[in-house]
Amino acid sequence: MKSTxxxxxxxxxxxxxxxxxxxxxxxxxxxxxxxxxxxxxLTAFQNLKNICEExxxxxxxxxxxxxxxxxxLARGDQILAIPTLVRQLPQPIRKIIGDLSNTERxxxxxxxxxx
Amino acid sequence: xxxxxxxxHPNHAPGLQKEQTGISGFDEITGGGLPxxxxxxVCGSAGxxxxxxxxxxxxxxxxxxxEPGVFISFEExxxxxxxxxxxLGFDIKQxxxxxxxxxxxxxxxxxxxxxxxxxxxEGLFLRLEHAINQIGxxxxxxxTLEALFSGLPNEAIIRAELRRLFRWLKExxxxxxxxxxxxxxxxxxxxxxxxxxxxxxxxxxxVENQISTRRLRIIKYRGTSHGTNEYPFFIDEHGFAVLxxxxxxxxxxxxxxxxxxxxxxxxxxxxxxxxxxxxxxxVSGTAGTGKSTIAAHFVNAACRRGERALFFAFxxxxxxxxxxxxxxxxxxxKYVKQGLLQFHNxxxxxxxxxxxxxxxxxxxxxxxxxxxxIDPITNFLAVGDASATKSMLTRLIDFLxxxxxxxxxxxxxxxxSEVEDSVVGVSSLMDAWILVKNVESNGERNRxxxxxxxxGIAHSNQVREFRLTEKGMELIDAYxxxxxxxxxxxxxxxxxxxxxxxIERDDMQRRKxxxxxxKQEIYEAQALALKNQYESERDAILRxxxxxxxxxxxxxxxxxxxxxxxxxxxxxxxxxxxxxxxRKGNVR
Lengths: 115, 588
Fold this sequence. Notes:
By secondary structure, chain A is an alpha+beta fold. Chain A is built from 3 helices and 4 strands. Chain A is globular. Chain B has 2 domains: 18-242, P-loop containing nucleotide triphosphate hydrolases (Rossmann fold); 258-486, 3-Layer(aba) Sandwich (Rossmann fold). In chain B, helix 12 packs parallel to helix 13 (386-402). Chain B is built from 14 helices and 25 strands.
């Protein structure tokens, strides 16, 4: 997996005590692919941030990749839809497309909540 | 069919530019290729050849027209694609290394994807744009775009994005090929044809009589005239080939040059010079009448003239033909080695009719022969029905005529059917028709040959006996008796009878001459004998007369003596026979 960070990563690392609201896995490595600073991208990022803060506080890492600036990176994670959130860790890889406005679906998609 | 021949086709509307695909035959039927700078939909069911068509479009573009291309694959990885098309002689990896081609594998797995709200396909657009810019692509392939529908949720978004995609491709002025699976009763499963309005091509692979034939049809091509037929195509080691073989019409030239049949006697039957160059000749006959041998003679004569010949055999292998023809004194192997003769042997059931036509077409274009033999055409009936076979042969004959190729077709006539029935019903297409038939009589079969028709040639109307000897075919005058034509041993018997009676006639004449001679000799001998007899008798008589006279003289003398002795005073009268002469004065 590519570990090259996007140009403007927005690390949101909070080194607080792990909370175990529904998730009992270790570290969460999340990558959000966007294409420019569109309202939808911003919405997606905000939604993601909120969900992580609520359910994965202190054990997640978000990397934002802007494909407008790094189009080659789309190939590695096979990105078509924008925005796409890729859960790189824990395995297996999961992809969540859309602006992440449906929190319940995001939780299901990330396996934070059982299906 | 030249792939490199880039020409401006006259029949497209102004403003509609076409881009040559370089796919063999396809540019002919479309009058120049695909619409330039526009997307074209290529649809067909699984295994119809969509991916290959698309790939060849790019490869030819890169190699022939120096137009780089991007292949976006939704189904196969780069590695798989390269392997799959390597069998067609395309070196994808080299083209990729040369930056002439770019493969982009787009993977979508529905089970890995969760939809959580509004999205678009900007990621795909960015990837396309990046790929296009990387090599300056002029051509693009999206294979198979419909994978989006099965891979991503929310069809409404996909449809909107596709509409945007096609618009975007047009703005980029890319000539695009988009492949689609055929749906139930529709051209494409997801109705993509509604987005692509310019050009839609349908590929089809139908199985008839357990033989599959690939066909291509242009469903729509906006703003240009195009062939509406189904065109057969095939995929072989050189790639995709569409066959624009339709009836080419009757516009071909009529050469006046003549070519030998390979048999001096048969040439004589055809006005002394053989067939016209570029004509189509049918040789029909029942089994074992020597049709292939006539064809071999024809080929042999062509190769001897230094011409190139193609022999399409659908019954025998090359070795078998060479061996068999050697038995009648024809060495075809020599010409194969010299490169003047090429055999194409296949079973008719190997392919469909159209593919056969295509293969023949292709071989002819490649080898450029002056003479072609198809042996036999009747075997095509195993593959297609009579009307399809006739249509195929019509197209083949038109094509051959256009190329000035003299072609001989053999046709097997079933023993039960009418001899002059050419089975396939193509006799009207043929310029010359030689018929060989078995004539059964007196417990034997003999071959009879005649020229049923020969357009434009004053040909013999005689049936000839046709014999195969180790020196080749031989045509012999057949005797016409009260029971019809007499052949074989009956002819030999007839010949013998005639010879015998001639000898008899000669003998009699000689005998008469001899008789006459002898008679003359007898007469002459007899005449000589008579003459001799006469002469001897005459001599005897003359001698007697002489003696008598002598005696009389003597007697007269004696009388004179006597009278003198007696002193007679009168003259003595001689009374006796033979003494008349001396009646008077003898005494004195």
